Each structure stands twice: as C-alpha cells, then as structure tokens.
Amino acid sequence: MLTDAYQPYVFPNLTRLFSPRSIVVIGASEKPHSIGNLAMQNIVEHSGFKGEVYPVNPKQDSVMGLTCYPDVASLPKPADVVVVVIPAGGVCAAVEQAGEIGCAFAVILTSGFSEADDWGRAEEAKLVEISQRSGIRIYGPNCPGLVNLNLPLGMTFSPAFKDDIAPGPIGLATQGGGLGRNMIQHNERGAQFGLWSSSGNECDLQVADFVHHMAQDPDIKVIGCLVEGFKDGARFAAACAEAARRGKPVVGLKVGRSEYGARAAASHTASITGSAEVNSTVFRQLGVVEVDDLDELVDVAMLFCRKMPTGDEQIAVFASSGGAASLCADNVGMAGLTLAEFTSETSARLAEALPAYANMSNPIDTTSISISHPDAYREALAACAADANVGLVLAPLPMDYGSYSVVNAESLKAVQDGVDVPIVPIWMSERQGEGYHTLARAGLGPLKSLRNMRKALRRWVDYGAWRAAQDSEWRPAIIRTGSGGEPGATRTLNEIEGKQALAAAGVPVTAPEIAQTAEDAVRIAGAMGGRLAMKIVSPQIVHKSDVGGVRLGETVDTAKFAYDQIITNVREASPKAELSGVLIEPMAPEGGIEAFVGVSCDPVFGQVMTFGLGGIYVEMFADVTRRMLPITQAMAMDMIGELKSARLLTGYRGQPTRDLEALAALIARVSDFAEATPGLIEMDINPVWVGTEGEGAIALDAVLVVKA
Amino acid sequence: MLTDAYQPYVFPNLTRLFSPRSIVVIGASEKPHSIGNLAMQNIVEHSGFKGEVYPVNPKQDSVMGLTCYPDVASLPKPADVVVVVIPAGGVCAAVEQAGEIGCAFAVILTSGFSEADDWGRAEEAKLVEISQRSGIRIYGPNCPGLVNLNLPLGMTFSPAFKDDIAPGPIGLATQGGGLGRNMIQHNERGAQFGLWSSSGNECDLQVADFVHHMAQDPDIKVIGCLVEGFKDGARFAAACAEAARRGKPVVGLKVGRSEYGARAAASHTASITGSAEVNSTVFRQLGVVEVDDLDELVDVAMLFCRKMPTGDEQIAVFASSGGAASLCADNVGMAGLTLAEFTSETSARLAEALPAYANMSNPIDTTSISISHPDAYREALAACAADANVGLVLAPLPMDYGSYSVVNAESLKAVQDGVDVPIVPIWMSERQGEGYHTLARAGLGPLKSLRNMRKALRRWVDYGAWRAAQDSEWRPAIIRTGSGGEPGATRTLNEIEGKQALAAAGVPVTAPEIAQTAEDAVRIAGAMGGRLAMKIVSPQIVHKSDVGGVRLGETVDTAKFAYDQIITNVREASPKAELSGVLIEPMAPEGGIEAFVGVSCDPVFGQVMTFGLGGIYVEMFADVTRRMLPITQAMAMDMIGELKSARLLTGYRGQPTRDLEALAALIARVSDFAEATPGLIEMDINPVWVGTEGEGAIALDAVLVVKA
Asked: Per the record's keyword annotation, is Metal-binding included, yes or no (chains A, B) (predicted)?
C-alpha cells in the first residue's frame, strides 16, 4: 500500500467546520426572502442540526424563536462556526470580534470583496490579517456556503438546499456555487453526495483543504472537485496525494483548457489558472481522474461508489436490442476496453435461459424476451453477472418502454442484489419514465448515453490500473518550489557557465574550453583532436546559429579560419554584443539521436519537466511528455516510453537500441539539479545526444535562465 | 450552387410508399396484442390516414369494422402498400400475389429471414426474385415498419408509435428499430421528426433509397442516418450527393468504429461494415456530418433545423452564473470556435440593462438579475442576440431553479421570437423541471451538457464551412468500381510491369531496364551512368530488401559485383523463386523527400487512396489522409495540406519548398490510372520521390495487385 512517509503540508482540521456543535448567524433575519432569513431557515428548519444556534442582529430580540444577540461580543460563549450574511462593509468588524472571542471558523457568504473592486480587495486583505492574528479560519467570502448532507446541515442561503438533502459517500469541492448545484442535482439519478464545499474567493481555506478533509472523513469514499483556478498548486497536490494514500479517488475538472476559459475563470475567481497541459500532467501524476464535463465527473464518481476497479476489468454487454448491443460493444471497443469471453458454464446457463435466436455471446442480445419472458431475462442476466471473467455488466436500454422498462429495471436491481460485480444500466432515451427512476432509486446509477459510458468506464478502469501500479511503487509528488516564475530580473547563463553547473551536478556534458584568440583556438583544437564544434559565447546572444556563431566539424587545421569567421559573422550581425570568446568542444559521434529536456516553472505547480525528441516530433506532432519534479530514473524511463516516437529509441527498423539507461539517468540528474537550484527560472537542454547502448547520453547545449 | 450534372444512379420514387393512397394489411387481426392487431390499430386508429385500408385474413370477415379479404388475390384493386405481418412461411406467396395484382410496395415486418437461418436466407432470396420479376419493391423484412409523422401514418406494430406523433423537418433512416425509437424520443426536448424508415434486412430498398427520398421531400430539411452496415456504398454516396445538391445536411452515425462493433453489426444486419477509416473519409468527402453517438446526431440535426450555418458564425455566451459562463466559454474555445466581440452599440445596451458588477463582455454573466430582474435579463439577451457579430447565442443554465427557470425560459423564447440568430439553451441540470419543458416546447431545442454543445456546435459550423467551399467547387463523388475486393485469384505485377503500366498512364516513374546477366548489368549501367539502384525481379518476391535483393548507389564499376551479390543473396534466401533478372535504374537525386501513394478497394465504397509521407510518419503518427477516387489535382493539393507533416513539404526550417504541383499531378494521374484499370485490387507506390520546386515527383517503386 501507499506509505505516509510524505506529509510536507500541515492541513487544518476542519471537523468542526463541517460538523459544528454551535453556529452563530451574523445577520440573521425574519424578513422573508432575505439572505439572513434563508440561511436561518436552512439551519433551523431544513437541517437535522442538534447544536446551538445563535442569531445575531442588533435590530431584533429573537429570530425564529431563538434569542437574538446585538453583536458577536455579547454571545454567551464562542461558537464553532460563524455564518456571516451582513453587507460587506460590516464583515471585517464582525469577523474580528468572532476571532477575539475564540470562534473557530467564519463562513462568509457576503459578496463584494476581491471579485468586485479595489475596496473589496483591501477588505479581503484585512480578513486574511484578522485570520492570521486571531486564528479564526475563513471560508469564502463570496460563496453560497457549505453543506454537510450526511448530518444534514446546510450553512447556506440557497433555496435549493432543502430539495437536495440525502446522504452519500461523494465529497464535492467547488469554487463557484452554480456548477456545484448542477452536480448535486444528479441525485435525480442516484448520485449520493455527502459533503459540498463551495469556497468562493478562498481568501483563507481553499479547495486543497477540503479535499484533504474529505480524504480523512470516513463517510466519504470519492472526492470530486471542480476548479476554476488554484490558490496554491502545491497544497492541492499534497491533498490529492493524501487522498490517494487513503485509497480515495479524486475526480477533477479544471476550467481553462482553452484561452477563453482561462481568461473567464481568472476574472471570475481571481485565481491563477496555469497551463492546461501542466494541469493535466499533474492530475495524471497524482492519479486525479481528469474529466471533460460536469456530468462526466458525476458518472465517474458514481462508478467509484459502485466498486473500486482493479484495472483489468473485462466487460459484458447485456442488451435486448441488436442495435443497442452492437453500438454498445462498439463503444467498449472504442474505449480500448475488453469484452469478456464467457466461461462454458455461463454459455450453458445462457443457452438454457434464452431462445435459440438470441445472441448468447458477448454482446448478448436477449431479443424481446426482456418483455415477453422477464424471468428468462433475469436468469440470463444473473448468468452473465456471475461469470468469472466479467468485471462489469453494461445494460444498454435504448428506449422508454413504459411499464416494460420498469420490469426490466426491477430485474436489474434483483440480480444486482445478489452479486458484487456492478451492473450498470445505460438509459439511452431522452424520455425518463418510471423505469429510469426505478434504476436511480435502486442505486444502479444509470448512465445517460453510450458516449458517456465510454468515457466514464475508461476512466474508471484506468484509475484501477493506476492504483495497481502505485501499490508497488508510490512516487510522492513533492513540489518544493511552490509557485515559481514570479516577475523579476533574470539572467541567462552562457553555455560554458551552464555546462559547468550541469557537470557539477553530474549531468554528462561535453567538456568545452573557451578560446579568446585564434591562436587559443588552434591550441585547444590540437589538444582535443578530432572533429570539433565551435560556438560564439556572448551574454547577449542566445540563438547562436542565427548570427553565424556556430561551426561544426572543424579540426585543428581549420580552427583558425573558423574562429576568425565566427568573430567576423557575429561582429557584423550583432555589433553591440559583448563577446566572451569562442567555445570549442569535441563533437558527439555521428549517428546519435537528438532529444531535448526542458524544465519550466509553472505559476501554479512549480517545476515541470518537458521531454521529447527534437525538431519535427515536437513541432508537428507535439510529441512530448511532462512530469512535475522530482523525477527519478525509473520515472524517466516511463517518460521515454510515453513518447509516440519512443520506437526511434528502442530500435526502429533494425536500428540499434539507444542508451536508455543513460538518457534516463541524465533526466534524473537534471531533475536533481533543477530542484537544488532555487533561482532557476527555466532551462532548456537541446539537443541531448543519445548514443547506442553503452555510448551514453550527453547534453550538447544548455540554456539556463536564473534570477538575476 | 451545386450543380446536378452528376446523377449516375436511378433511385426509385418512394412517394407512394411514404404517402400511400391505399394500404393492405396481410395478417390483420382483432386478437389483442397480436402484431396484426397492433399494426391495424396504428393505421386505423392512431394515424390520420384518409385512404383505403384492406385487411387480409382468411379467418375473419371484418377487422375493426373494415371488410376483410381472404387473400391478396381477392382484393378489389391493387394497393400502393402491402403491410405483411404473417409468419415467415407465408410471406413469399403473399408478396408474390401482391406483385402480380400490381401493388407497388411490400412492407414486410415479419422476422425469420436472412438474420435467422439458411431457410430464411433462401426465402429472402426468393423475395428478391419476386421483386425483380413483378416490380413490387420490398421494405424489410425483419423490421418494425415505416413511419410518416407528417401525415401522420404509422405502418408499424410498435406500441410506442401513438406516443410519438408530431410532425417535423427531420428525416431519419435507420436499419434496426430500437435505436431509431431512441432518437424519436428526443421529441421530449423538441426534436421534430417527419419521416422514419427502419429498413431491417434491406433485401431490396435500403438506407440509400430513403436518404434519396428524403432529399426530394420538400417537408424534410435535415436527414439523419444510423447505419450498421451498407448494402451498397456507392448508392449511399450518390444519395448523399443528391442531398448535398439540394442543400440538405445528412448527419450520420456508423456502427463499427471498433472491431467489437463491426463484428456485432455484421452479425446483426448481415451487411458489410467496411473500414471505419474509409467510412469517415467518405462521410467527410460527401459532407455527411459524422457524429459519435445517438444524442449527438439529434443535437446536430436540431441545430440545422434552427438555421443553416454559414461556417463563420461567432458565438455569444449569455449566462447568469460566473462558473457557467467560464466553463461554457472554455468549451467554445476547446471546440476551436470564436467568441464574438460585441459592437459598441451592444456594449452600451448591455451597460444600460445590467448592473455594474455583471460581466458585460463575452462571455456575459448577468449575475442573479436573471432572478431578481427578469426584464433586465431579457433586454440584455436581446441586445446580445441583435449584435451584428453574433451568429449564435449560447445560454447555459446550470441548475433547475423551479419557477425562476420557467421565467428565464420564457425570456429566451420571447427574445428568440424577435430575432433570426439561434438562441440555444444548454440545460445542464439532471433535473428536468418545467423550465426545461418550456424550452423544449418553444422549439429552442435545449442541449444537455456543455460537452454535447461543444461537439454539436463544432459540427454545425463545420458543415457551413464545407457548404461554403462546395459553392465554388463541387466535386462529385463517383464510385465507378462499386464494391471491389471480391475474393478470387490475384496476381502481383513485377516492378517493371507495374512501372510500365504507370508510365503509360502518365505517372512519372524511373525508367528501369532489366539485366539477365552480369554483363547486361555492366552494359546498362554504363549507358545510364551515375548512381544506380539495382533490385531483384521475381514474381514470388515482393519484399525485395528482406532477401538481400536491393542495392543502392551502384555505378558502372560496381555493377557486376552488385549483380552477382543480388543473385547469390536471393538464391540463398529464396531458392525456389523464379528470377526474371535484376532491374537497374538511375537513382533519384539525393535530398528528396519520400512520400507514398496507395489505392485499395474498400468492400463498401470501392477505390480509396491513402497518401502520406513514409516511414515514421505513418508508423508512429498515423499521419495519412484518404479520399475516394477520382481525385483531381486540386483535391490532391488539399490532401497534401491535410498532413500533419505537410510543413516538411512546404519549407520546414529553411529547407526548400517541394514540388507540390508535380506531386499533386502524380496523385491525380494515379487516380486516373486506378479508375481506368478495372481488375486493380490494390496498388502501393512507395516511395514517391519528391524533389524541390521544378524537380518533379517520381514513383521509385510500385506494387500492383490485379485480378488473375
């Protein structure tokens, strides 16, 4: 199992936020439709809350029959949670009082803070100060509140809260409220949510904290999160690592996969959205199941609630229509999943249950006996679900057949009650008749289309495979650098400096020397012998070829001419550049393959490595792979294998296998170096020469950008 | 506009099938729940049919108050349609009688034919004979019937028919019935179907005939088709070309995109499924909008009913939740579509209507004024929809807010009534409250998720772009070869024969000569001069390199040795091969780029060309493009541009531009040659050498497989 060796972040204990013993409502009111009244109603009337509730409102003596206090200072004792619904102007003072008397959490529903204007930004900064000074932790502001459906308790003004009360094992962490409510409303088809945080501006507590809390909560089995932007990527990664350690899948949707989304999300939540590629890299590395839409998030979470996958599930398709059987099987194939082959025992049971004209191999088509002979249908389904090779049964239902569909739904439920293998109906019809509701109520979580099935099932199985791989080798994601890339002056190391730094860190580089004169060049070339590369060294020149500053294949005989030529070219192209001399180094043997290794600082997730083969593979096919640092040699081997062009390294068309061990070692050394170099903004080692087995891998060029 | 120059197929006139004046029901019955009774009920009670109905049943005098005839021969006059619901054993005789008295169409619902067993296959073959002999056209057998919802008339036994009666502009052609009913049930959200054919085994009439009919029917604007397998691919292509000519989009879903689906569909419908890649090629070439699932087919068809796209629509997002605005905009970006920039007039109207804290640029977030100030919401929406830059307005609605959602829905409808630009709501919630039904009834065709929106909208816009391109240059899809690739003996031409055939067709090839002896080789090499390629010629050897049968870069000096070496190598590796000699030809100049051109015979769609650059581009990145023949030089240019690696031909990293004109001309000549060579099974020209501009393109090797 996963170990808990890695715990670099201290997360707050949020037990009393989600399950308070006492709640203050600042701004409680009896005025119909007011936020203060809606919040009170939800806590007092619609929740099953057994603790104390203290309304605060200077203009009233009591609210909903409860003694009302003029201000927080007058409360008889501190409360676990203070719900704040007064206008923005009074929020700081109220929270300060609450902090002073020792309240633990403030849930600030009020809007008009950093999302609104400069005044709001300043007030929000004050809230952070108050929190740091008094220890009160802040949820919000600018949010619809917090919901614990397992109690149930809704600290929210949402008029929809009362309609969506049912307990469940799914925890949901969102930022805005609207899309969270969208997912909660999937309770219509049986999705069971237990906790929902919707943390708005996140001036203090953030998605990462809620994910971490849900990872601890024994009633939560699966965590969903919808993120518009991260306040602290490293903290999020640590929370996901904790969820993984506890065997709880995190299913994530991140807004900002296109420019439009990134821009809109940034303006909506004032968070840093980061790069979609890096985000996907991080999700994959942490085992966060990245999904494509809200309904898919719920689909996948519901499947996890049914059963945790092993990663090698084979699928049975059980249909009563030839078309549905075909199209469903088609989608299983398109997902790259495997249809189970039935055992002879199953085949015998099917042959006994079904008429001769039914299709008894996988995908099963029972034909219309689903209507005419429900018992036979049930017996055939039971046989299919009991097959030792079947890891999950799909039951596509193409249309609403009224009462017949109800009978089918009851058969599915009856068989499911007797087996452990999940039976997953796909209610393909737009018409949601009673059969559909029967399936939803039975906890069978009907999927809504074959395409949705295809995507959800693939992700479910993939997570099982990911977990299985982690069991033997857990690689903690340590993000030591936090959010890098802050603005500031930078300096680009020259190639000599860069290579010296890399060499000191154990990265194989060519051993260059620098010539200040043509005579130097001849002397150095003579000592090195063989074919040489000669390149200009200047702090102002990064793209050396563009100014005629590179010559390859020179020898001692041509070194003087080459030196003079480089100096002449560069003087002409860049008259103002300071020239430090001409670098001379032995050329790598011919026949190598060129790769590149880059490290950049993502504003959200810190140092990330990009690796690939150079030139066309990147530029035309975007054939690269990425990882958060640190990267071990074993991880580097995985990265190499992930390239579509990996076969070029492993012996394409009779060519020799490349020195993969050396390449992986080089990648790991670069990772170590990047981690150990705090001021590193960016580095680009391009090309890395990769020889055949035993020949090694060498950094031929390196550009390093550091803080000035 | 598209011309009607191309009409190689004669399609039957199906007017009297879809709109008969008289109907016979063979097997009409009053027995409750019998197929004969259900069919009669649908025609007599649930349809608006005004013509004559003749029940036929030897055991009854009248059925449902109508005079019943003992057999078809006793009918007073021939009918337009004969609906057959008697058991399979009597079908042939009944249809034969119907044909003899001059009935036009037989709709055979009965099962137990080619889908069942050998007896059924023989009976179905008899039906085909009867049809050919008497001229009666056959629909089915083994199908749920035919539905004309615009009359309405249901010649079907489906008990669901009566629940789905509403007219509409969408025609739907399926094979099985279950999945068709699934799509019809999207009438729940306002999808309006007018015709539905579901043609089962298709022993005579097939999907292509129905597509063609719907292309003629003035009440049909859009055609959907779900195909498990094609009876005649060329016919289908011709029908789609006719629909395109008449400006009616065809939206298609083809089962068999994975091995599982292909196998299941083949066993379900006994059709040839063909290759998914070729199918997608054909769809794209014919402008058939290929979709990924049933609900997507309906989504796209509904958008076409709203408005025909121009291809350059810019999108507005109009939301009342910041999260929904962000995620919706994100999906617009992910679809590669453009968010409209509002005119200053629109901005002024929005600023007047909305509060200052709303987001007034695209994506619009009205905030909760959608609830508090419905008039302002409506005015803002009207401003947005009236903007000159906006081609379509998306209105994502993340949750069901009960009566508030109804008010919003009514606002959408009210604004839509005044503008031409489609306003498309996205009902994202699983809960389908009254607001949802209001939208559906208003004809606004709510989409069901952002992902569905992303896919449907992209396809809608793409179709507009395709049509716009066709307006200037319509390329008819002529499939002269029909279904090729029938089994039979084949013969592989040797390289000399192949190149001679290509040269005769105007394809540039190297001019090889053949040496029978080492002395020959020296003489030929001397005459040719320069660097030479030498290759074994043998009818048994296709992969010449594998047996040491190829030597490159030889000269007159090395020709003897090379000849002897090739003969020795081949004798050792393939002692039994007949050797025709050694081919000698000048080598192409160095520095060319290698492409390949292949033509294969798809069992469904006939000759298809595959083009790409060789080696790694195909093998690792599957970077190829395909077209049905014939291919003009202009089409070939498009194909070249479609490659991901196209930049290698157009001057990558300062390399010279390649001779694209010559390459395109070569492709077009190969197409001409393939079309003019009836016995051609397959050809593979690999490599094609492509020089720089002016240097030409030359077929360096060619393998042609022809019928023996």
From this structure: no
Tell me the C-alpha distance between B622 and B618, whole Å: 4
Supply the ipTM of this predicted assembly.
0.91
Rounded Cα gap, residues B240 and B248, in angstroms: 9
- The CATH number linked to A257 is 3.40.50.720
Last-in-domain residue among A272, A304, A336: A304
- Smallest Cα distance from A472 to chain B, Å: 30
Distance between A175 CA and the closest CA of chain B, angstroms: 8
Residue A482: pLDDT over 80: no
Cis peptide before A374 (omega within 30 of 0): no
In a domain, B487, yes or no: no
In a shared domain, residues B293 and B330: no
Banded model confidence at residue A5, pLDDT cuts 50, 70, 90? very low
Would you place residue B540 in the very low, low, confident or very high pLDDT band (cuts 50, 70, 90)? confident
pLDDT at A655 over 90: no
Q: What is the CATH classification number for the domain harbouring B379? A: 3.40.50.261
CATH of residue B676's domain is: 3.30.470.20
Instruction: Find chain B residues with C-beta within 8 A of A448's C-beta.
Output: 448
Contact check, Cβ <8 Å, A326/B653: no
C-beta atoms of A257 and B295 within 8 A:
no
Is A44 among the domain residues? Answer: yes
Residue A262 lies in a domain: yes
The band of A562, judged by pLDDT with boundaries at 50, 70 and 90, is: very high
* Contact yes or no for B160 and A401 at CB 8 A: yes
The partner residue sitting opposite B323, judged by closest CB among A262, A268, A430, is A268
Half-sphere exposure of B82 (CA within 13 A, CB side): 34
Q: Do B106 and B172 fall within a single domain?
A: yes
Of A232-246, B122-136, B485-499, B610-624, where does mean pLDDT reach its minimum?
Answer: B485-499
Task: Say if residue B194 is in the same domain as residue B328.
Answer: no
Of A533-542, B45-54, B300-309, B690-699, give the lowest mean pLDDT range: A533-542
The whole-number average pLDDT for the span B287-300 is 96
Residue A477 lies in a domain: no
Say if the Cβ atoms of B260 and A449 lie within 8 Å: no
- Class of residue B311 by CB neighbours under 10 A (exposed 0-12, middle 13-18, buried 19+): middle
| Record: contact A264-B398, CB cut-off 8 A | no
Question: Which residues contact residue A211 at a Cβ distance below 8 angstroms, ignoring those fewer than 6 apart?
Answer: A171, A173, A223, A225, A236, A239, A240, A242, A243, A250
B419-445 burial, b for 16+ CB within 10 Å, e for fewer?
Answer: eebbbbbbbbbbbbbebbbbbbebebb
Give the chain A residue nearest B447 (alpha carbons): A430
**What's the pLDDT score for residue B470?**
79
Taking contacts as CB-CB distances below 8 angstroms, the residues of chain B near A228 are: 323, 326
The verdict on B438 and B557 lying in the same domain is no
Domain that holds residue A164: 15-304
Q: Could you tell me the pTM of the whole model?
A: 0.92
**Number of domains, chain A:** 4
CB contact under 8 A, B182 and A259: no
Residues of chain A found within 8 Å of residue B279, distances taken between Cβ atoms: none
